[in-house]
Structure formats: C-alpha cells, structure tokens
Amino acid sequence: MHRYITGWLSGLGSFGLLVKEVIVSLFTLRVAWRDLIYQIYFIGVKSQTVVLVTGAFTGMVLAAQAYYQFHQVKMDTATLALVGVSMCSELGPVLTALMVAGRVGAAIAAELGTMRVTEQIDALRTLATHPVDYLVVPRLLAAVFVMPILTGEAITIGIAGGYVVGVHLLGIDPVYSWHNMLRYTTIPDFAIGQIKSLTFGGIIAIIGCYKGMTCRDGAEGVGQATTEAVVYASISILISNFFLTLLLGRLFHII
Amino acid sequence: MIEVRDLKKSFGPQTILDGVSFEIQEGESLVIIGRSGGGKSVLLKHIIGLLRPESGAVVIDGEDITHLDERNLIRVRSKFGMVFQGAALFDSMTVAENVGFALRRERKLTEKETARKIAEALDMVELPGVEKKKPSELSGGMRKRVGLARAIIYQPRIVLYDEPTTGLDPIVSDSIDKLIIRVTECLKVTTVVVTHDMRSARRVGHRIVMLHNKKIYATGTPEDIFASTDPVVQQFINGIADP
Fold it and tell me: Using a CB-CB distance cutoff of 8 angstroms, which residues of chain B are in contact with residue A123?
C-alpha cells in the first residue's frame, strides 16, 4: 500500500514536471514547422475515417432513439433538436476524443516508448535537443489544433446522419424538425463542444507522451505504456467532460 | 577536463556505483572496463548528464553538471558526442537525416553546407553514399559507424562510446577500433570508451580503469593492466569464470 501511494505520488510529480517543461517550451521554442505539419497530418488527416464513421452512426442512432421516445408524446419534430444539441456539446467532442485517444494516444505512447527503450530519447538529449521541444510540443500543438476540426466534422456528419434517418427513414417533417434544431441548438452549445475538444486534444497528446517517455524497458513495457495511455486518456476525457459541462454551462449561461 | 568525484548511484535497493572517482585529461583516450551489468554504461551516462547521481559530482571544464537542469545541460552536452550501444539511430529518418540532425537543429548552415558536412562525416567513418538508406537497412557495424558520424559532425571535444564493439564480428570490431583511434587523433578529441572487449581496450586506450564491485578497482596504462598480477584483474583479462 505504502509503495503504491509513493509510486502514484512520484508519477504525479513527474507528470507535473512534464507539464512545466511543456509550458516553458511553448514560450521559448521556435516551432519546427515540418514536424508540426507531419503531426497534423498524422493526428488529423489520418484520423478522419474513424471520426466520421463514429460521428455518422452516433447521429443516426441518436435520431432513431430520440424519435422512438418523442413519438410517444407526439413530439416527433424535436428529434433533430436533440441530435443537434447533444452532438454539439457532448457526444461530438467526447466520442471524437475517445476514438482519437484510441488511435493517436496509443500511437504516440508506442512510438515514444519504443524510442525510449532503444535509447533514441537519450540520443536526442546527447544531440543537445530537449525531448519535450522535439517530441512533445509538436504533438501537443497538432492535437490541440486538429481536435476542434475533427469534432466539427463529427458533429456535421452526425447531424446529417440524424437528418437522413429521421426524415427519410422515420418520416419526420423535415421543415419543422430543421427549424426546431436551429432554434434549440445555440452558439454556446457549439462553443462548449469546441472548447471541450481543445482540452481533450491536449489530454490525449500529453498523456500519450508522458506514458511513452516514462515507459519501462522491453516489449512488455511499451505494451503497458500504450494500454495505459489509452485508458488514462479515456478516463481523463470522461471525468474532465463532466466538470467542463458544469463549468462551461455555468459560464455561458451567465454571459 | 572531466572529473568524476565520489559518484554514488543506485536504482531502487540495488547500488550500482558506490564512490567512483577518476579524472580524464584533455586529448586522452580512456577505456572503462568491467563486468557486464557492473555499471559501466551507467557511469558513462553520468558523465554526459543523462543520469543524476545520488551523491558525488561530475565536473566538466570546471563546471559541476550534476545540479544543472535539462535545459542548462543542453549547453554542456554540445561539447559531447555519444555513440550508443545499439547505435540508437532515429529509425523514422534516413541516414543523412540522422547524421545531419544536430546541424539542422542548430539552423546555422544552409542545406547545401549541411549536405556537404554529412558527406564528410560519412567519409570519415568510411561509409560514403549511404545517405538515403534507412537504419533498418544497415548492418550492426554500419549502424555504429552512422552513430559515430552523427556524434562527430558538430565537432564535439569529447566523444563517449558505449560498448562500441559489442555484438560485432572480430573483423568489424577491429575496423571500429581503428576508427575510434583515427577519430581521436584526427579530430583531437577526448575519448571515453566503455567496453568489456579486452582486445579493443588494449588498442584504443591510453589508459584503462577497471570497475569492480561498484568502485574503481585498478587503473593504469594498457601495459600496466595487462601485466598486473592482481587476481581480479587477471581473471577479467583472461575471461575466467568463478569456479
């Protein structure tokens, strides 16, 4: 028990130090555009398929499920409003982030973990390069940059999927439901989703990098780091989402 | 130039170094020998600040580097080049990108000058024309050479070698030894080699220190060490296992 607590505390400490180094680096670093663009391509462009499929089917199932419930109380045309609000502020950002955590968080942890166990990170350090500047910051900036875009895509295709299912499959009136969606889905809903996605992007990249850079030796170490990166990032996304919903909801309604 | 003072290091309950002290003069070629797992590589990593000791000091040109943070260590590390045991080439990059890494990070030279320097460094390690290959396409000996080219391209004053001949056949090992000697002489660098290859130690070193039982056990010229009558030194040189 004692060892577990000290291990946990020292892990928290080294995570804090990594965050500190990242902040120092963000203020002093000259960005290597080539690395940043490659990471944007890898994290953003290559994640699109999985994000689009997730978004589309989430919107579709949401429309179907909402319709079944609303139909009982004769509120069919509220279906798309529900799809719009929940895709923009909750499901869009959270599900996109969970999918990206699985794909990108794991890849970052595996890549940096392998670099660590093959001494490539030590080699970087001997070549007068800070690993945080070279490895962490481009991934973090790229993730924070692409997540709102990916989330926007998921929301768009989710609503489109919901529309197709609702209007063409279940026969909801297109004009009223579209009108209701625009009426109930507000700018703050969309803004909340975008702010969340920025935060989730940061969480995925920094946990992936931290797990990779502190991974234990051997194939088993890399495997464990990869699994932990995905699990920790996913849990952090879900927990922070709850608090962000409370905080941002309060903030936007005051404004 | 390099001074190691009473260095102590342990990983968890296991003590690796327990009061190691020695000095390295400018231009000298020092070989550190000792059993596998005896802390040679750990010692080498302390010299370049990759690891931090529990106590003791590593002094480079009069500056104690043990308390410097990572960003200040970057300045000190530009004096060093290091060749890793497994070469530690960046496997996502080509040979040319590996070798030119430090120069491109500095952003002082034009692309043309960088390419010329890369070609020069690869010539120095007798590997011309492999610029476009990936590290995975190279043999073990070639990788070590590329690792050396990467370490010397920015003209460091000290070059550290971690087991440069381990895992190579005797002929390739010999060529690496010659290369180390050539780099030491041509570039006038201070050389520190960690090895358990006695043939290599004899050829490369101006001086040998032997690490045994977490401490420096013996020190002297290769002739002294090989002529030593000490049973522990003799046992190591002749490679005799405990009965």
Answer: 82, 84, 88-90, 150
Choice among A103-107, A211-215, B55-59, B165-169 with the minimum mean pLDDT: B165-169
Kindly state whether residues B73 and B163 are assigned to the same domain: yes
Pairing label, strands B190-195, B158-162: parallel
Amino acid (1-letter code) at residue A200 = F
- Residues A215-230: tens digit of each pLDDT: 999 899 999 999 999 9
Task: Classify residue B85: in a domain, yes or no.
Answer: no
* Cross-chain Cβ contact B81/A126 below 8 Å: yes
Tell if the CB–CB gap between B82 and A123 is shorter than 8 Å: yes
* Cβ <8 Å between A130 and B50: no
ipTM: 0.90
Q: What is the rounded CA–CA span in Å between residue B156 and residue B201? A: 22
pTM of this structure: 0.90
For B118, the domain range is 90-155
Count of domains in chain B?
A: 2
pLDDT in tens, B145-178: 999 999 999 999 999 999 999 888 888 899 999 9
Q: Is B6 within 8 Å of B56 (Cβ atoms)?
A: yes
Concatenated DSSP letters of B108-136: -S-HHHHHHHHHHHHHHTT-TT-TT--GG
